[in-house]
Amino acid sequence: MQAEIITIGDEILIGQIVDTNSAFISKILNKNGVSVYQITSVQDEATHILQALEDANRRSQVVIITGGLGPTKDDVTKHTLCTYFGDTLQQDPMVLAHIEMLFKKYISTPISDMNRQQALVPTKATILKNDFGTAPGMWMEKAGTVFISLPGVPFEMKALMQHHVIPKIIEKFERPYIIHKTIMTYGLGESAIAERIEVWENALPQDIKLAYLPSLGRVRLRLSAKGRDKNDLQRRINNEVKKLYPLIGEIIYGEEGDESIEAQIAKLLIDKKQTLATAESFTGGKIAQQITALPGASKYFKGSMVAYATETKIKVLGIPVALIEKHSVVSEAVAIAMAERVRILLDTDFAIATTGNAGPSKGDADTPVGTVYIGVCTPSGSFAQQFVMGNHRERIVQKSVNKAFELLQKEILKF
Amino acid sequence: MQAEIITIGDEILIGQIVDTNSAFISKILNKNGVSVYQITSVQDEATHILQALEDANRRSQVVIITGGLGPTKDDVTKHTLCTYFGDTLQQDPMVLAHIEMLFKKYISTPISDMNRQQALVPTKATILKNDFGTAPGMWMEKAGTVFISLPGVPFEMKALMQHHVIPKIIEKFERPYIIHKTIMTYGLGESAIAERIEVWENALPQDIKLAYLPSLGRVRLRLSAKGRDKNDLQRRINNEVKKLYPLIGEIIYGEEGDESIEAQIAKLLIDKKQTLATAESFTGGKIAQQITALPGASKYFKGSMVAYATETKIKVLGIPVALIEKHSVVSEAVAIAMAERVRILLDTDFAIATTGNAGPSKGDADTPVGTVYIGVCTPSGSFAQQFVMGNHRERIVQKSVNKAFELLQKEILKF
């Protein structure tokens, strides 16, 4: 059983926004046994949308359409669906009541004709209630294919997928299980890994597929299988994963692609009832931001000193001027001192610190762009490591954040 | 003249990664007068890729393909291109020399057969040199349509687009100018704005298009036009924008969608030679991270105290315990104190501070989830404002970060 996604909106095709909706929809469909065959982004234009609907109808049983359901004039999706289904629009009293309620509750201005028009829906559509906005989701069927139209605003779309679309798909279609397992590695390139595991890879059962996903110093290996017996799939995939450890065990740092390294660290720290602080220079708060993006971070994360300027390192973090003068602000000694100081200041068990130069121009130190130091301080001591991260600002920061989490995780596991 | 993008990779269709490549490619093509008609994401599978190539060929003169050029076995793009062009692979000595050089320079392990195979390219392809990786870009032509295949690793793809693909497209095709102008507004919903500007919108010239882009408390209005005379387009769009100010001037906070509010703040602070610090509670470093994502941030940004725990607010930021006990940690008084304290500690001209509850559960204060305070401290005083940001963790944080930048920008403009 197969689905397609059609995202509507010129803003995608001129590169003004990144289409994150498709990734969310693909993931949740996959989790529920529905493979996504294709994602198509089309213009806000009736002929183009109609063509995409017809093409998708030929190939797939479920077509999910997002975008083009706003209250303003650039909205064409609803009218195009009417053309496609030979249908007309009529006012839905439930949708209208919901819009009126939202206006009364959240919006001070009086309800406008334009908003009332959002209650106009195709007569053949089953309405999916949008708890967070005025544009309802719509479920329509044609020649055995289901078409689901959702608003493009991500959090409205997400709630509709989770609470309405997925339950209805589960009810309507028999679906296989789709199992993915992702093995996360670092320290070895894609082709070097491929050579080490070649014999294993060639011996994989026909229905278990392997993919290499390289990114910023890491390679993720994804195993996928599809079938009726979930336990059997799980068992067979786990069996293959076990065989990987003797081959590349030393570069594996985790399983399950869904769980980020910061989520694994969170679990470890909560389990051990231990706490963390960070002192960030060139990573500029990104480590703290990734940690606090997880709900419950307050259980183990006390804070971060983003000491971007050298002056801030001295005045707030208390790094001795002499140390900076002797070693330079981008140095092993300063990374260690930053980790140690922030651990004491914020009174935590663990601390990580970063100092380096992300470019494009040289900063307060003469160190070349891309040279960074990551310091770690634990209840039993501290150290720092140097890394050379290339010359691309964004990548230097992201690779360093990843590396900091890796170093930290290894240390926490020792306690 | 029209282009299409085909992104290849199961990882996109299972939602494991978000396709950011397409947004980058669309944007740079648009800037150079090439409209993108459609973006299609397909599986790592020859029949599917072939179908997408044929469909795109019917519609567009330029087809850009990314993904599926890695060294490992899940790579199918190159072989499919050979099938499509009736071509065979042959070793390219220049590509091989480049791969050997990269291995010698950056990788300690010896070069493998798998990497050598990356030098195999279709005989009809013009090679586009990939300075940052082993998989070359390829430029092929068929029946008047150009097919360009690029590796999927974003920074390799970006460099190839900028330095090779765009110059070749400019050389080969006559292109019109495409002009976009985006007006950023906040404080009014999509439909309320639409009503206020209805007469203006209906009077827009046929070839100037308007789109509404709502997101997290803001609505962006995008005007687009396409034509041969750049100055004329620019003049006519600016003329329409001018007419908007009497209608909705008070909710416009900037023009040019490409320039983020933090980039505008950066320019202001650099111009005025003034500095900034932040004290962040529930935003967890995201304000600092967005500021430091811009090159040159060290010119005006001294750092941030990410005081996530109440204890950290007291111990490091020096917020009086009595103040917290009297007003609660999520309060106007604490937001003001945080902004004032961090401004003094880091010795800056401006400071912003956040305290609030992003949920999902209640934190150190009894304040409901979604209630936040943003404090601003300037050379002439300080204040804080309360906002109620809904109940979705990620949105609460992002909306608050946006709001903090808006408040700050208004204050900086007073000096």
From TrEMBL, chains A, B:
Domain MoaB/Mog, residue spans? 4-172
Entry-linked InterPro entries: CinA, CinA-like_C, CinA_C, CinA_KH, Competence-induced_CinA, MoaB/Mog-like_dom_sf, MoaB/Mog_dom
Q: Cross-referenced Pfam families, in alphabetical order? A: CinA, CinA_KH, MoCF_biosynth
Give the CDD domains listed for this entry: cinA (cd00885)
Highest taxon of source: Bacteria
Family of this protein: Belongs to the CinA family.
Please report the name of this protein according to its UniProt entry. Answer: CinA-like protein
Q: Source species, please? A: Croceitalea dokdonensis DOKDO 023
Taxonomically, what lineage is the organism?
Answer: Bacteria, Pseudomonadati, Bacteroidota, Flavobacteriia, Flavobacteriales
